[in-house]
Design brief:
heterodimer, A: 256 residues, Rossmann fold, 6-stranded mixed sheet, 4-stranded antiparallel sheet, B: 616 residues, 12 strands, 11% strand
C-alpha cells in the first residue's frame, strides 16, 4: 500500500534520514521504533509531504507522492496524527472533528454524520465533551480527539506519532486497544512509538531506526524475542516485577 | 594575535576613525547628518534593550526621544543649567517616563502591548503640543545652547561630533556588557520564555520595568544629543508615532538584539536617503523598496546576515576565547561570594535516606477553574531526602498541584508550607529563591540562548549583580561570574551535557533538552525539585539513564516530587507514592501498597502494572 524507497531528508546541513526504505501492506499495523533523533518523526513528515526528501521516493497505492503537497497527500487518503496532539485549543471538540473532514472532498452531510457516529462509537468520551473547548480537555482526552480528528477524513492509511506520550498507564492500554480496533475496522496503520513493547504487541511488523537508517526489521513477534531489542528498547518497560527486584535495598544501593 | 591584543587594536582604530572622520568630511551638512545618525543610534540602542533583549515591542521610543530633547532644552534655557546637566536630566526624566509606561503595560504582551505604547507615545506628543506655557506648543523651542567643555563651546558640527561619538561608543559598550551579564541574561530569559524565567527565580515584573526605564533613558539621552546639535531647534512634530516606526525599522534592520547592528541600521537609514537624492522624485520609493528587500532576504537584519557566515562564527568564537570561561578569574579560596556548590541538605547524603522530618506540607489544597474542581482538598507531605511520586489519570490534577506548589497558580483554598514558611500565594520567583525548582511537561527552555546561558540563568536567584555592577563589572562581579560559570559546568557535567556549552538550546535533540531543563533547575540549588513527566518521550535506554540520575540527585540531598506516567520509572525510584483521581487523593503509600490497591488499579494502573502478585 505504502512503499518508501531509500529516502534521504535533510534539515539544512544536517542529514536526518540516510536512505530509509520501508513498506506497509493493506490492513497491517506497522510500527516504527528507535531512539530520539533516529528519524522516526522525520520519516512520517517526509511521507506526509511536510518535508521534501533530497533523494528517494514515496509511493502510495501505486502512485508516486514524493514531492506532493501535504494537503494533496491527505486528500489521497493518508491522515497523520502528529506527536504532541496539536489539537486546535481554542475550538470546540466538534469543530476540531469537523476540521478533520476538510480534505474529504464531495462528502455529503449524511456521510459525515455516519463517520462522526463511528468516531463517537470508538471514543464515547468525545461525544460527551463535544461542546467543550480543546484546551479544557485533559491530555488523554486531547489524544483521543487528535486520533478522532485523524479518522474524520476516512483515511486509508493512518499515521500515528507517539500516541501514548504523556498518558496514564490505563489510558495507554486503552489507546493501543483503540488502535487495534481501528485496524480491525479496515484502516491500515503506521505507528511510531517509544513504548516499544506495547507497540509490538499489537503490530504485525516493525522497523527499528538508528541514526537515520533502518537497523532491523522483522515480524513483531520476532522483534519481541530479539535479544538486541530486549537490551535496547524493551529494557525499562519490562515487567514491574523485575523493576521492583532491582529496587530492593541491596540491589538499589548497588545501582545508585 | 591574542583576542586581547585585537580588542585593544580595534579600540585604537575606532578612536583614530572618530578623530579623522571630521577632517576627511569637512562639509557641515554631512557632519550634521552624522550627528543626527548618532542620536538615532542611541535611541535605537534603547529600543534594542526593550525589544531586542527583553522581547517587549515598544512603539513609543520617539516620545522618549522627545521627552529627553525637551527636558534638556528647558532646563538649560529656563533654569540656565549647563548642558551636561541637561543631558543627565534628559536621561533621568525619560527613564521615569519609561517606568510610567512600564507599569501599566506589565499585563500586556504582543499587539496589545504595541497598541498601549502607541497610545502612550501619542499622549506624550499631545502634551508637548498643548502645554504652551512650558513648551511653546507647536512653535517649538529655538536657541538651545551648545555644550561646553571648560572654555571650549562645542557649537560647530565637527566639535559636537567628537562628544556625540564618545557618548555613542560608551553606550554601545554598556549595552554589550549588559547583554553578557546576569541582568542581560535575565532580560533575554524573559524574551525567550517568560513563564520559565519567572519560575527559575527572575522577578519578571522588576526586570521588565527596568528594561522599559533603560530603553527610555537611552531614548531621552538621544533626544538631548539631538536638541543641542544641528539646528538647535526642536518642535513636537518631530517626536511622532511615525518617527517611532522609523526607529523600529532602523533597529530591526540592523539586527534584533545586536547593539552594533542598531548603530549600523540607524546610520544606514539616516545616510542612504541623502545618497539617493540624485534619483529626484523617485528616491523615497527606491529607499522603501530597499528596506522591504532587506527585510525579506535578511530576516535577521544585517547583524544576522553577518553572523550567519561561517568565517564570522569562527571569528566570534575566537573573540570570546579569552573570556572568563576559558581562563577563569582567580577566585580567593575563602570568603567566596559566589553561589554555593555543596549539597543542599548534607544530612541526607547517605542512601537509603534517613526519614527526618517534613520538607513540605500541603493542607486541604484546592483549585477550581470556574465549575471545574481540578484539585479538591488534597493533603500531602513530602519528607526530606525522599523521592515522592504523584500519579493519577490524565486530568486528575497532578500538574495543577505542581503549578500551585511552584506559584504559577494561586490556590482557591488551602495552605502550602515549605520548611516552616507559609508560601501559599507567593510569586514563583520568590518560591524559587526559597529553594524549590521545577521542570515542565512541555519543555520550556530559553531556546535561542546557549546551553551555558540556560544554566547560568538557573543560578539567577542566588547571584547578586545588579544593573550598575553588570555594566561596570567591578572585581566582585567578575568573581561571581567566574564562580557561576564553574558551577554551570559542574552541573552540565553532572547531567552529561558537558561539551555542549555553546550549542543553542533548541538545536539539541529532545532527550538532551530534557536533561538541560533538569540542569537549569539543579543550578538553582533547590532543596525540593518538582519534575513534571521527565520521562515523557524518552525511550527505554534513556529512561534507565534518568533513573540513575534521579538516584544521584537524591544522593546530593535534594528531595524530589515526581509526576510521571512511566510506571517502570515510578516503581523503580519512588520512596512514597501519592495517587490522585478527579482532584482528590485516593491512595498513598509504598510502591507495593500502591500496586496492590484495587482502587488505584481500576482508576490508573490497569492490569498491566498492578494486581497479580498482591494475592500473597
Amino acid at each position: 500500500m505504502l512503499s518508501v524507497e531509500g529516502i534521504e531528508t535533510w534539515y539544512g546541513a544536517i542529514q536526518a534520514l540516510k536512505g530509509i526504505s520501508l513498506d506497509v501492506n493493506q490492513g497491517e499495523i506497522v510500527t516504527l521504533l528507535g531512539s530520539n533523533g533516529a528519524g522516526k518523526s522525520t520519516t512520517l513528515k517526509t511521507i506526509t509531504g511536510m518535508l521534501k526528501p533530497a533523494k528517494g521516493a514515496v509511493k502510495f497505492m501505486g502512485k508516486d507522492i514524493t514531492r506532493r503537497e501535504p494537503e494533496d497527500i491527505t486528500e489521497m487518503g493518508i491522515s497523520c496524527v502528529p506527536e504532541g496532539r496539536h489539537i486546535f485549543a481554542g475550538l470546540s471538540v466538534m469543530d476540531n472533528l469537523m476540521l478533520g473532514t476538510t480534505s474529504w472532498k464531495g462528502a455529503t452531510k449524511p456521510e459525515i454524520k455516519k463517520n462522526l457516529d463511528r468516531v463517537f462509537e470508538i471514543f464515547p468520551a468525545l461525544s460527551e465533551f463535544k461542546n467543550r473547548l480543546g484546551w479544557t480537555l485533559s491530555g488523554g482526552q486531547q489524544q483521543m480527539l487528535a486520533i478522532g480528528r485523524g479518522l474524520m477524513s476516512r483515511p486509508k492509511l493512518l499515521l500515528l506519532d507517539e500516541p501514548s506520550l504523556g498518558l496514564a498507564p490505563v489510558l495507554v492500554q486503552e489507546v493501543f486497544k483503540v488502535i487495534k480496533e481501528i485496524q480491525e475496522a479496515g484502516t491500515t496503520i503506521l505507528l511510531v512509538e517509544q513504548n516499544a513493547r506495547m507497540a509490538l504487541l499489537i503490530a504485525n511488523r516493525g522497523f527499528v531506526l538508528e541514526t537515520g537508517k533502518v537497523a532491523l526489521t522483522d515480524t513483531a513477534a520476532n522483534l519481541l524475542n530479539n535479544e538486541q531489542m530486549k537490551a535496547h528498547y524493551l529494557g525499562a518497560h519490562a515487567h514491574v516485577r523485575e523493576a521492583r527486584e532491582r529496587r530492593r535495598p541491596e540491589a538499589g544501593l548497588a545501582s545508585a | 594575535m591574542k583576542p586581547r591584543t585585537a580588542k585593544i587594536l580595534l579600540g585604537i582604530l575606532l578612536v583614530a576613525f572618530v578623530i579623522t572622520l571630521p577632517r576627511l568630511v569637512t562639509s557641515n551638512y554631512w557632519l550634521n547628518l552624522f550627528n543626527l545618525a548618532i542620536s538615532f543610534s542611541v535611541a535605537c540602542l534603547g529600543l534594542n534593550i526593550v525589544l531586542g533583549y527583553t522581547g517587549q515591542l515598544s512603539l513609543a521610543q520617539a516620545a522618549f526621544w522627545g521627552v529627553g530633547a525637551y527636558t534638556s532644552a528647558l532646563v538649560t534655557i529656563r533654569l540656565g543649567w549647563p548642558v551636561w546637566m541637561g543631558m543627565l536630566a534628559a536621561f533621568l526624566i525619560a527613564s521615569l517616563f519609561g517606568i510610567l509606561l512600564g507599569i501599566p503595560t506589565l499585563k500586556l504582551s504582543g499587539h496589545y502591548l504595541a497598541m498601549a505604547t502607541i497610545g502612550f507615545g501619542t499622549i506624550l506628543q499631545l502634551i508637548l503640543i498643548n502645554s504652551i506655557p512650558l513648551t511653546n506648543g507647536s512653535d517649538g523651542i529655538t536657541g538651545i545652547p551648545s555644550p561646553r567643555i571648560g572654555p571650549l563651546e562645542l557649537s560647530s558640527a565637527n566639535t559636537f561630533f567628537y562628544l556625540a561619538a564618545f557618548c555613542l561608543i560608551l553606550l554601545v559598550w554598556a549595552s554589550m556588557r549588559l547583554k553578557k551579564s546576569r541582568v542581560g541574561r535575565a532580560l533575554m530569559a524573559i524574551r525567550e520564555n517568560e513563564m520559565a524565567a519567572e519560575t527559575i527565580g527572575i522577578d519578571t515584573t522588576y526586570f521588565k520595568i527596568m528594561a522599559f526605564a533603560l530603553s527610555a533613558a537611552y531614548g531621552g539621552f538621544a533626544g538631548s544629543l539631538f536638541a543641542h546639535s544641528g539646528s538647535h531647534y526642536i518642535s513636537p512634530d518631530t517626536f511622532s508615532f511615525d518617527q517611532s516606526v522609523v526607529l523600529l525599522v532602523m533597529m530591526v534592520l540592523g539586527g534584533n538584539g545586536s547593539a552594533v547592528g542598531s548603530v549600523v541600521g540607524a546610520t544606514l537609514l539616516t545616510l542612504v536617503p541623502e545618497v539617493l537624492r540624485f534619483l529626484k522624485d523617485s528616491y523615497m520609493m527606491v529607499y522603501a523598496a530597499g528596506i522591504v528587500a532587506i527585510m525579506v532576504f535578511m530576516p535577521g537584519g544585517i547583524a544576522g546576515l553577518v553572523r550567519s557566515f561561517p568565517i564570522s562564527q569562527r571569528l566570534i568564537a575566537w573573540w570570546n576565547s579569552d573570556d572568563a570561561l576559558v581562563t577563569p578569574v582567580a577566585v580567593p579560596a575563602t570568603n567566596n561570594p559566589g553561589p554555593k556548590v555543596q549539597a543542599a541538605d548534607p544530612s541526607c547524603v547517605n542512601t537509603p535516606p534517613k526519614q527526618d522530618g517534613t520538607l513540605l506540607t500541603v493542607r486541604n489544597l484546592a483549585k477550581y477553574f470556574g465549575g471545574l474542581k481540578a484539585v479538591d482538598g488534597v493533603d500531602m507531605e513530602i519528607r526530606r531526602c525522599e523521592i515522592q511520586a504523584l500519579i493519577g489519570p490524565n486530568g486528575s490534577g497532578k500538574t495543577t498541584i505542581l503549578n500551585m506548589l511552584s506559584g504559577l497558580y494561586v490556590p482557591t483554598s488551602g495552605e502550602i508550607n515549605f520548611e516552616g514558611t507559609a508560601i501559599t500565594g507567593w510569586r514563583p520567583h520568590s518560591i524559587t529563591s526559597q529553594g524549590m525548582a521545577r521542570t515542565f511537561q512541555n519543555i520550556r527552555l530559553f531556546g535561542e540562548l546557549t546551553v551555558l546561558d540556560n544554566v547560568l540563568i538557573g543560578q539567577h536567584s542566588h547571584s547578586q549583580s545588579g544593573l550598575l555592577t553588570s555594566v561596570i563589572q567591578p572585581p566582585s562581579q567578575r568573581v561571581e561570574e567566574a564562580a557561576m560559570r564553574r558551577k554551570a559546568l559542574e552541573v552540565l557535567e553532572f547531567v552529561g551535557l558537558r561539551g555542549k556549552e555553546f550549542a543553542i538550546a533548541k538545536s539539541l535533540p529532545y532527550g538532551q533538552q530534557r536533561l538541560l531543563e533538569l540542569a537549569r533547575a539543579l543550578a538553582s540549588d533547590p532543596k525540593l525539585l518538582l519534575l513534571d513527566e521527565p520521562a515523557a518521550g524518552l525511550n527505554a535506554a534513556e529512561t534507565e539513564m534518568l533513573i540513575d540520575l534521579l538516584f544521584q540527585i537524591r544522593k546530593k540531598g535534594i528531595t524530589i516530587l515526581l509526576v510521571e506516567h512511566d510506571m517502570s520509572l515510578v516503581m523503580n525510584v519512588s520512596d512514597h507514592i501519592t495517587v490522585l483521581n478527579f482532584g482528590k487523593k485516593i491512595a498513598e503509600g509504598s510502591c507495593d501498597q500502591i500496586s496492590c490497591n484495587q482502587e488505584v488499579i481500576d482508576a490508573y494502573l490497569g492490569t498491566e502494572h498492578g494486581g497479580e502478585e498482591c494475592l500473597v
